[in-house]
Specification:
alpha+beta; membrane
């Protein structure tokens, strides 16, 4: 009797209530508005924000990328894995039923009489059995595991959304940069023609004694300087073409139609909303929050792993020496088993510590991701503001440098000055033209970064037609 009460006491101690240490969503001390928000009218950011650029070829190319990009396809595959793991986890709460069948036979010879041949005896036995098992989720341990797997699945959905968002930004940036390089090459071509025309003029004047040989050499140097800029741009253009083909899942020898090769016109800056709204629409922030939730459920499950487990089982067996009458003889039993860990070499305790440490890591990762999200929007808005200021300044520089070039050229033609002021004005004006093209490109690229930092609602349910089917092969 004493042992019976001792066992009961041990189970009661093990059954102490363990609450899940739920962390609340970390509070992010975010300002009410972004400091660099534009005063111009704001437009609502759309899911397919690149359509605002008005580039039909880009829109078609984006559809192809979402269908054929290998990184996105891998994200879809990881989502299917998470869905399968969720199904595996949920199976722990379901009834398990197994069947088994056996057939055995034996023969033996026995020497019953020395004067007679040995007699052969044999027997056959057939049996069929069914066994059902079910674990009662007494402390919601299995439910916690299921909840953790569900959070992992939702986190992977957010990861697919994040991959699509990053992919769209990378494609559009490469697309726009390619067109910007084409514009820069066209500008260099015009500048080379202008420089060569000026070179012919100086050569003509030098032959007639109106210019010295130094002027001729200096202009040749200016022509060579501008031409030297072309190879690097051509290399960059080729790299971007290969990158676009790779992003669309194509080989390097495929063709790509970029349509009209000029920089697009930007609409007004998209609406940023308040900082708190950014956290709700950023896939990476949502993913980090879901991973934190998952780790907290696993802490709860690790705590409850120390509690007793109740398993119910039922078994039915049929057997007979004749297969045709196998169901004539039968027996069944029902068992309820209660087990609890006593000595496990600190296994469960270390699993609990591991789950706690992982939760702490996810807690800090969420805060870092949220702060980075807000900073990225603020940086993009600030860059938009100052890039526009820079464009205005460079446009003014282009205008003034053109006036300077015209005046120095007029004075040179009239013999009122030597060629050095003309050369300086020409180099300054052409550099200002190139800078203007570069800054305009930077503004567009920064707008792309702003759209990326704002997040978005790339709805998986609406894009399931883009889910690539897993390729199979016969073994």
């Amino acid at each position: 009797m004493t042992y019976k009460y001792l066992i009961i006491c041990l189970f009661l101690v093990a059954c102490q209530n363990i609450e899940r240490e739920a962390k609340h969503r970390p509070a992010i001390d975010s300002p009410k508005t972004f400091t660099s928000e534009s005063d111009s009218p704001l437009l609502e950011s759309s899911e397919k924000w690149w359509q605002e650029l008005g580039d039909d070829e880009l829109n078609q190319f984006m559809d192809k990328v979402f269908n054929d990009n290998l990184d996105l396809a891998q994200s879809w595959a990881r989502l299917r894995q998470a869905e399968a793991r969720l199904g595996i986890s949920r199976s722990a709460k379901k009834l398990k039923l197994n069947a088994d069948a056996n057939a055995e036979g034996n023969k033996r010879k026995i020497d019953t009489n020395p004067n007679e041949d040995k007699q052969t005896f044999g027997a056959e036995r057939y049996s069929i059995g069914l066994k059902a098992t079910y674990e009662v989720d007494l402390w919601d341990r299995i439910s916690d595991e299921n909840a953790a797997a569900a959070m992992d699945y939702e986190a992977q959905k957010a990861q697919v959304q994040g991959t699509a968002l990053l992919l769209s930004a990378e494609v559009v940036e490469s697309w726009v940069t390619y067109k910007a390089i084409v514009e820069q090459l066209a500008l260099l071509d015009n500048q080379i023609k202008t420089n060569e025309q000026t070179l012919r003029l100086i050569s003509y004047r030098q032959k007639r004694g109106l210019a010295n040989i130094v002027d001729l050499f200096q202009q040749r140097q200016q022509v060579a300087r501008v031409k030297s800029l072309i190879p690097k741009l051509e290399e960059r253009k080729a790299d971007l073409r290969l990158k676009l083909l790779l992003l669309s899942g194509e080989n390097f020898d495929a063709k790509i139609d970029l349509g009209e090769l000029k920089l697009p016109h930007l609409n007004e800056i998209p609406s940023t909303g308040i900082p708190a709204e950014i956290l709700a629409q950023r896939p990476d922030v949502n993913q980090s929050w879901l991973l934190l939730q998952s780790s907290e459920f696993r802490i709860s499950s690790a705590n409850k792993a120390k509690l007793p487990r109740l398993t119910l089982s039922a078994q039915a067996n049929f057997n007979n020496q004749k297969f045709s009458r196998v169901f004539d003889n039968w027996f069944s039993n029902i068992v309820a088993g209660l087990t609890a860990p006593i000595l496990d070499g600190q296994l469960l305790e270390n699993e609990k510590l591991l789950a706690k440490a992982k939760s702490d890591e996810n807690y800090l990762y969420y805060k870092e991701t949220a702060l980075n999200a807000l900073n990225e929007v603020e940086q993009a808005l600030s860059a938009e503001k100052w890039r526009r200021v820079q464009i205005n300044s460079v446009q003014t520089e282009v205008e003034y440098s053109k006036n300077t070039l015209d005046e120095t050229m007029r004075r040179y033609r009239r013999g009122l000055s030597d060629y050095l002021p003309v050369l300086t004005a020409l180099a300054t004006h052409q550099q200002a033209q190139r800078t203007l093209t570069e800054v305009r490109t930077e503004l567009i690229v920064n707008r792309i970064e702003l759209h990326r930092s704002l997040g978005g609602s790339w709805d998986i349910e609406e894009n399931t037609e883009l889910l690539p089917q897993a390729e199979t092969k016969e073994n």
